[in-house]
Every structure is written in structure tokens, then in C-alpha cells.
Amino acid sequence: MRVAVVEGDGIGHEVIPVAKRALEVLRPDMEFFPVEVGYGRWERTGQAITEDEIDALASADTILFGAVTTPPSPDYRSVIVRIRKELDLYANLRPVWGEGFDILVVRENTEGLYSGVEKIEQDSACTVRCITRKGSERIARFACGFARSRTGLTIGHKANVLKSDVFFRGICIAEANAAGVPWKECFIDALCLDILQHPERYDVIVTTNMFGDILSDVAAYLVGGLGLLPSGNLGERHALFEPVHGSAPDIAGKNLANPIAALRSASMLLMHRANDPESARLIETAINRVRARDVRTRDMGGMYGTVEFGNEIIRELESLIRR
User: Fold this and answer.
1) Which of 34, 186, 210, 232 could form a cystine bridge with 113, CB 3.0-4.6 A?
2) With contact defined as beta carbons under 8 Å apart, do 269 and 20 qualify?
3) Domains and CATH numbers, the chain
4) Which candidate, 265, 269, 151, 140, places its Cα nearest to that of 212?
């Protein structure tokens, strides 16, 4: 299996090497090759990503992705949004789990407010929210595929205000009924609150692009923050796995970043792309054992740096393999 490794910007340069080391320990048969994209590349060359990098990513069996900085500039196009669209990574999986709850947010990943249909004029700016039948049907079917083996589906929307969500809601309901999946619905603003107050009420949640982005970040509060959560971007042919956190330039290069989200992204890669659930389980076991020894990064109340915490994880994985 050929794995494209994109460190990106900021703390991506620190957390992705830890995840890559974990994969090397667990799967020495994997072949890794680097691909450079991001804001740092743009500052140096004037291009954050080119067709050559898109082609390189498309040639890989899967992608391990770090984090990229996206400045609030009218002239800068998001690298990760472009990759998702170019490789048609239409489904974004964002699991959030803890004591008494196990939630999977399934977010449509290529349209909505991130469609790229927008303009800025002298006295106004406009971003078009594109919701298509094709995009809605396939994300609903994707979510139903997970919901069949779990307790049911929640459709997150704002159909009381947005006609595009009336459209999305109707398609999701039709797909759930066709699949025989029990469903309920919730306005997305109420859902953001209720998921924090009653996370045990939710299992698989399907929603649109922007709403899914916000909801999954809100849900990160349940487990201690964005530094702990992974995500998977999946399509028919390609897949990319990345931590949900950003590039965190304020702590970049200071050995402060928590690599758990990157490690769990590697675990998702093993589960969903390499069809290797045993190796995926070993990463989570290693994380739990290291944390049980009170080995924690500073954001979790510990004193370990990124490198030192990563070394402890690798030692634990090597010990688990020997057993």
C-alpha cells in the first residue's frame, strides 16, 4: 500500500511524523512518499498546491494528512477543500466517543457553503450554498450504511429557515426509509446544544458540509478538545485521513502539540482503507495504556512534549506487537 504523507503547515510537521512512525511499526509493508502542500509552500513559491501534487495524491492508495493554514484572504483558495473536491472525497467521517456515548458525524464534504461559488464586490460578498440531489443521496446512503449496524440516524438540518435544507432533509428521510433505518431529525442549532447535554442520545448523525464542520468541532468538547479527534475523508476511489485540529501556528515548533488526533487518524486509515482493524485497535490500546501511566501532553494536564509522548506511544506499540 502506497501512502502519501502530507505534513502541511504548523503542527502538522510535528504530529504527522508520530503517526507515520506508528504505521511503520504496525505495517512495515507500507510504502510512504511525501507531498508538500500548504500555506508555507504558497509563501515560498506562490502556489499552495498544483496539478502535480493533485496527481501525486491521486496516485496513492491513501493519504495521511496533517494540517494546513488557510488565511482569510480573497486570493487564497483552501488546499484541503480543493483536494476534497478534486479527489471527490464526498464523505467526511468524524467519530467522537467517550464514557456512555459513541457518536459518528457523517458530513457531506464537497458542496454546500464550501462549493467555491462566491464573489466579493465593493459593497457586498456572496457565497452560494449548493446542495445537489446527487450529493445528498450519496451522503445519506453512506450514513445509512453505518446506521444499519448501530441504533439509528439523526438528520441535522435547518429546514425551518433554509429551503436548501428542506431539499436535503427530504432526500435523507427517503434514503433512510428505503434502507429500513430508523431516523429522527433535529435543527442544527438545537443539536449543537443537545449533543453536549445528552451525547448518549445520538449515534450516527448526517448533515451538510458547514453544519457538519461546526457540529463535530462542538462535540470535541465532550472528549477534551480537537487535539484528540481524527477524521476520514472518503470517496469511491480515494481516501484521506487527518486530525480535525488546525495548524495551530501559535504553538507550532514548540513541542507542545498533542499527536493523539494524528495517531487516531492513522488508526482510521488502517480500519477504513487498509482493512486492518487489529492494527487500528493496537493504536487505541497504546494511547489508553500510555495515558493510564499518566503520560500526557500539556493540553491534557501533563508535562510531556510531542516528541516525548510520541516516543512513549511507539514503545508501547512495539511492546504490544512483541506480545
Assistant:
1) 210
2) no
3) 1-89+235-323 (3.40.718.10), 94-225 (3.40.718.10)
4) 140
Question: Whole-angstrom Cα distance, residue 226 to residue 233?
Answer: 17
Q: Give the pLDDT score at 322.
A: 83
In whole angstroms, what is the distance from residue 106 CA to residue 91 CA? 7
d(CA 144, CA 126): 33
Q: Among candidates 235, 180, 186, 234, which has minimal Cα distance to 207? A: 186
Q: What is the dihedral of CA 74, 168, 244, 216, to 10 degrees?
A: 120
* Its pTM surpasses 0.90: yes
Closest Cα partner for 9 from 33, 35, 34, 39? Answer: 39
Helix axis angle, 12-26 relative to 306-322, nearest 10°? 10
Q: Answer yes or no: are the C-beta atoms of 98 and 222 closer than 8 Å.
A: yes
Q: Are the C-beta atoms of residues 222 and 105 closer than 8 Å to each other? A: no
